[in-house]
Amino acid sequence: MGKGKVYLTGAGPGDPKLITLKGLETIKCAEVLIYDRLVAPDLLEYASPDAELVYAGKLPENHTLRQEEINQLLVLHALQGKTVTRLKGGDPFVFGRGGEEAVVLAEHGIEYEIVPGVTSAVAVPAYAGIPVTYRGVASAFSVIAGFENCDKPGTSIDWARYASPGETLIILMGIGNLPSITGNLMAHGRPADTPAALVRWGTYTHQETLFGTLGDIAGKAAAVQFQNPAVIVVGEVVNLHEKIAWFQKGVPAVQI
Ligand code: SAH
């Protein structure tokens, strides 16, 4: 039996219509579909009724399948000649360890394709009315891992690099470390009145937002027990949501 093929596919950030056409094709053609926690459940309905669906979701504290087990599954199914789609939230190469999976496949000589996706880092702020860059306000943005996921190495972030007022900071996986993140940014020179936003379940109909400043957002989040999955946005662009907000809670999900 010949070797199969693996697609490392980005599912987009939540709203199921934000998957790419190519991504959808790879769901439809999969004989084995291995999907993560942050993949929109509606997308799984496009899998063939004969496909084997494997949940490989990870929670920060509680790993359903260890990364090594996921890698092994990809390799084993492909070696059995199957078409495997590895469906990951957002873009497969923005955190989430898609790069490591591609390396493992390459090392085993398995054919694979990367199908990029719409990353939550940019799309979730957009659904909260926040453009990550804006002429005259922010000419750069950085996407940072908040390191609360125990998968991530314990290296500390060089916060001094992110003190520039003309840069938007987008922090993923950071809610558990919010007081330390905001404290570090202020300690390195970002003013306490810098606008900040938290966006939970962005792009889903149940999206929630919390707005504040670097100085008060951690307290506000604690008061309402704001939880993951959420994107933290820091920078003057956050204020633009007052003009641009377009996606209100309760907007019906688009059907595909
Ligand atoms: N590859 C993904 C990111 C994986 S890391 C991407 O490109 O989007 C997982 C983190 O992404 C979560 O902890 C959260 O910070 C963020 N995230 C993903 N989907 C999200 C959503 N719909 N709303 C808010 N945050 C989200």
User: Any idea what the radius of gyration is?
Assistant: 19 Å
- C-alpha termini separation: 36 Å
Unreliable stretches (pLDDT < 50, length at least 5) are: none
**CATH homologous superfamily classification of the largest domain:** Tetrapyrrole methylase, C-terminal domain
| Shape verdict | elongated
Number of strands: 10
The largest pleated sheet is described as: 5 strands, parallel
* Total DSSP helices: 8
Helix content: 25-40%
The SS-based structural class is alpha/beta
CATH class of the largest domain: Alpha Beta
Which percent range describes the beta-strand content?
Answer: 15-25%
* Secondary-structure element series: EHEHEHEHEHEEHEEHEH
* Bound small molecules, deduplicated: S-adenosyl-L-homocysteine
Strand order of the largest sheet: 3-2-4-1-5
Total individual domains: 2
CATH topology of the largest domain: the name is Methyltransferase, Cobalt-precorrin-4 Transmethylase, Domain 2
Assembly context of the chains: single chain
